[in-house]
Amino acid sequence: MTGHMTSTGRGGAGNIADSTKSPQIQPADLETPTLKTSVVTTGRGGSGNMAPNNDPVQTRARQDVGPIERRPSQGATHVGRGGAANIVRPGSEEAEIARDGSAIDDQPHRHNGLAAKAKEFFKKV
């Protein structure tokens, strides 16, 4: 096989291609385009999100999208990939461990599950 391979998507053999056949990205390709129409959209859709394009500075500012801050969870929250063992209540010890990124298995004194109790029991025997 000649050339270098590149991944062009999330995964799978169909997303692997010869990088020499892929279009080369230029710095100009990464610049935000200037909107030239007389009316521009300022949101996801709907007539309430249409605005006249009469101020280039304001129109350009409308194209910038800032990050959306995550609100603290109010109820039970999933951590990890799913499953009942990955549901925690806000303010619980498990939620603090999940927020800090500490591994529960590294701190057996904090985890009172059946498997941890069995493990501790067999250590004593």
List the helices and strands and how they pair.
Blueprint: E1 5-7, E2 16-18, E3 39-41, E4 50-52, H1 56-63, E5 77-78, E6 87-88, H2 93-100, H3 114-124
Antiparallel strand pairs: 1-2, 3-4, 5-6
How would you describe this protein?
- The chain is 22% helix and 13% strand.
- It contains 3 helices and 6 strands, in the order E-E-E-E-H-E-E-H-H.
- 1% of the residues are buried.
Write a concise keyword list for the protein shown above.
13% strand, two-stranded antiparallel sheet, 3 helices
Quick structural gist:
By secondary structure, the chain is α+β, with helices and mostly antiparallel strands. It has helices spanning 56-63, 93-100, 114-124; strands at residues 5-7, 16-18, 39-41, 50-52, 77-78, 87-88.
